[in-house]
Amino acid sequence: MFDALTDKLTAVFQRLGSRGRLTEKDVDDALREVRVALLEADVNFRVARDLIARVKERALGEQVLQSLSPGQQVVKIVYEELAAILGGSTEAQGLKPSPRAPSVLLMAGLQGSGKTTTAAKLALNLRKQGHRSLLVAADLRRPAAIQQLQSLGKQLNIPVYAEAPEGNSAVAVARKGVEHGRSLGVTWVIVDTGGRLHIDDELMQELEQVKEATSPAEILLVVDAMTGQDAVRAAQEFHARMALTGLVLSKLDGDARGGAALSIASVTGVPVKFIGVGERPDALEAFYPDRMASRILGMGDVKTLVEIAQQEIDEKQAKELQKKMRQATFNLEDFLQQLQQLKRMGPITQLMGMVPGFSALSKRLPQNADTDKQLKRVEAIILSMTLEERRNPDLLNGSRRKRIALGSGVTPSDVNQLLNQFRQTQKLMKQLASPQGRKALTRMMR
Ligand SMILES: Nc1nc2c(ncn2[C@@H]2O[C@H](COP(=O)(O)OP(=O)(O)OP(=O)(O)O)[C@@H](O)[C@H]2O)c(=O)[nH]1
Ligand SMILES: [Mg+2]
């Protein structure tokens, strides 16, 4: 997600960071490029324009140009302003229950946006936090919709309330579903509703009636990140009629340009609470504006990565990794270990963007090979090195590289590319470990 944008921004910032002194014109030029990159990524033009204006004002106002590392200061300001646009908080906006159980969560959204899938993902997510939920099949338009929810419930072992659709109404099912949830003693009742291709009065009326009948604590609109600015417009309209409490951006794992998703919180004033990053029921992440900003700027999202890792590897290892990343003592051996752990953690693409420098690295490898193949290749290259070489990549002279290429079945230039990219990653980490960098990083980590 956001790969193209990240690549462009990283390039602009690298150029900016390589200069010792910056003039106002340097900043102007760089920000113009940032603006173009944002617009190309489909960020709403007003949002992009305002962002650039604020960054410029701060960059010129805060004596950034006189500082020792003006480039990094500008990047830091862009980071902060981007985080502000995405919602501005360092905390995820979790679900807020109502005073009395069960709390009702109403799913809304256009057809195919991901409501039913997200309902199941949320139930699973809530269970991980110790909640019990009931799913309610209040989409009576398609018989298949009820079956879809029932089969998801069965798969996850989460109860589903459903009724025969004939002569029935979504409102009646939703109301009885909530009663049933109360009798089961669940803490959340998640009501799945039907979608339409476009917003129309019938859909809105149905949703309004369900809302009135169930007094939901949360009304989440699921928007398909692939639909670009249409998603932003849909969110505005839904919010005007329904008073949404949050947004879920689905399909951020796809090849959407992603910019619409970036502008949506800022345009609608509704916080993004979750993002969907795959079809599987566990492919849902809490949304943290600051972490997303750092991902977009190519700084990785070490925190989320560490959290996912904690579910799979022990905490000690994860802490160690975080420390190493901070101290920039991360070597190829650590890299290999990470790679192997990543492989055990499931869909790789979902995790890639979170490792600093990693998505760029995988792109250097021969295209048209799929991600897992690319990773196997990186792994093969590192495995062909001796332990000493992995710990100290400086040892890798020409003849050693040739040997490694032979051993791993790649060309010497593949090995060179991997090493170059690894160096850049290390350099980035060193920069982050410098006093200014550390300050920025501490803020990010907080
Ligand atoms: N890749 C990816 N696919 C998703 C994600 N969320 C949902 N999908 C897929 O999108 C398709 C539509 O999802 P549904 O949950 O059925 O959407 P819906 O809004 O309930 O659709 P209707 O009930 O027809 O209005 C399914 O094939 C899902 O697997 C996601 O985050 N990533
Ligand atoms: Mg559905």
> Helix tally?
21
Strand order, largest beta sheet: 3-2-4-1-5-6-7-8
Q: SSE order, as H and E?
A: HHHHEHEHEHEHEHEHEEHHHHHHHHHHH
According to CATH, the fold-level topology of the largest domain is Rossmann fold
Give the C-alpha Rg: 24 Å
CATH architecture of the largest domain: 3-Layer(aba) Sandwich
**Principal-axes shape call:** globular
Please indicate the count of domains.
3
Estimate percent helicity: 55-70%
Query: Segments where pLDDT lies below 50 for 5+ residues?
Result: 364-369
Average pLDDT works out at 83
What small molecules does the structure contain?
guanosine-5'-triphosphate, magnesium ion
CATH homologous superfamily title of the largest domain = P-loop containing nucleotide triphosphate hydrolases
Class of secondary structure makeup: alpha/beta
Distance between the termini: 24 Å
Explain this structure to me?
This protein has 446 residues and is an alpha/beta fold. It folds into 3 domains: 3-85, SRP54, nucleotide-binding domain (Four Helix Bundle (Hemerythrin (Met), subunit A)); 103-287, 3-Layer(aba) Sandwich (Rossmann fold); 299-445, 434 Repressor (Amino-terminal Domain) (Orthogonal Bundle). Helices cover 59% and strands 9% of the residues. The chain has 21 helices and 8 strands. The chain has helices at residues 3-17, 24-40, 45-61, 70-85, 115-128, 143-156, 170-184, 201-214, 229-242, 259-268, 289-296, 302-312, 315-327, 332-344, 348-352, 358-364, 371-383, 387-391, 398-408, 412-433, 435-445, and strands spanning 103-108, 133-138, 160-161, 188-193, 218-224, 246-250, 272-276, 284-286. It has an 8-stranded mixed beta sheet, sandwiched between helices. Strand 5, helix 9 (229-242) and strand 6 (246-250) form a beta-alpha-beta unit. The longest helix has 22 residues, at 412-433. The protein is globular and about 75 Å long. The two termini are 24 Å apart. The relative contact order is 0.11. Residues 364-369 have low confidence and may be disordered. The structure holds guanosine-5'-triphosphate and magnesium ion. Residues 109, 111-117, 139, 145, 195, 250-251, 253-254, 276-279, 283 line the site of guanosine-5'-triphosphate.
